[in-house]
Amino acid sequence: MPKGLICKAISGFYYVESGGRTYACRAKGAFRNQHIKPLVGDWALFTPEGEGGRVEEILPRKNSFIRPPVANIDQFFFVVSACSPAPNLFVLDKLISIAEYKGVEPVIVLTKLDMEEADRIAAIYQKAGFPVLRVDYRSSGWRAPLERCLQGKVSAFCGNSGVGKSTLINHLGFTPEIETGEISDKLGRGRHTTRQVELYPLPFGGYLADTPGFSDVQLHRQEQILKDQLPYTFREMVPYLDGCQFTGCSHTCEKGCAVLAAVTAGEIPPSRHESYCALYEAVKDIAPWELEGGKKS
Ligand SMILES: Nc1nc2c(ncn2[C@@H]2O[C@H](COP(=O)(O)OP(=O)(O)OP(=O)(O)O)[C@@H](O)[C@H]2O)c(=O)[nH]1
Ligand SMILES: [Zn+2]
């Protein structure tokens, strides 16, 4: 049975791309009883019938998201503007933590460098072990590193309203033009959020999700990371986690904490550790059973 990627889902049709062709498929009726809902980003086995066909099986997912409904994202490009809006590193670290938890590779993209420099931010995230890309439209040098990063992966852009996601996606030119520069509505949900997510194939391999709708708010509402898992979502802390004097160390204030020692030694950026402490404080009293059947917010 052929295998394909669901690139678009509209009104009960799943558009499966396979072998350079797209098939408008229906889902197998049994999915409903099994509570399986195919998502954009799913790899599917399907039976082709002319231009159409039927989705027969959804292959195991690497990850999935509720809003926008999409699966198997390889990487998030977290777009951070040097100014207007001013960067909020705590929010960024929280989103990075969620990405790590979900198995999505975080990439930091700095914009509006024509208005202000962002060397300090670049240094923090490079030190922490993330790819950092600088986008400055005054020259063409920004494009090649970004395209190299996109190659062969399923990527989505994420970031606050106004940081320049749509502008960047338009400059890349692989998806239909998005309107830029409008003010998002009062509820904090951007104007793109109602749009269906769609994966666009990239000419050099890989896919780009055309969803500026991956706003900060939506992403962090989807996951609650418990305190035992939290340290593992800060990648630069991981090498030190076994080195603490006491088991059960929270890595926030304890004597003999190897993480704190690494912060003092300049191995872990202080702002990253501060974000970790703030997140720890927020989740430390949440027990696993409290998450059953819903999410604590
Ligand atoms: N000076 C400067 N302005 C930029 C840059 N990138 C984007 N802008 C401007 O910033 C404003 C917001 O850009 P958008 O691309 O709409 O931002 P967005 O992240 O898509 O915002 P939402 O759609 O609300 O989520 C627009 O007026 C852009 O022209 C940049 O690199 N430099
Ligand atoms: Zn510790």
SS elements, strand count: 13
The pLDDT mean sits at 89
Fraction in beta strands: 15-25%
Name of the CATH class of the largest domain: Alpha Beta
Bound molecules: guanosine-5'-triphosphate, zinc ion
CATH topology of the largest domain: the name is Rossmann fold
Total count of domains:
3
Strand order of the largest sheet: 10-9-8-11-13-12
What is the overall number of helices? Answer: 8
Radius of gyration in whole Å, from Cα?
A: 21 Å
Query: What fraction, in percent, of the residue positions are helical?
Result: 10-25%
How far apart are the termini? 43 Å
Order of secondary-structure elements: EEEHEEEEEHEHEHEHEEHHH
Largest sheet descriptor: 6 strands, mixed
| CATH architectural designation of the largest domain | 3-Layer(aba) Sandwich
Shape, per Cα inertia axes: globular
Low-confidence stretches: 183-194
Q: Looking at this structure, what is the CATH superfamily of the largest domain? A: P-loop containing nucleotide triphosphate hydrolases
What structural class do you assign from the helix and strand content? alpha/beta
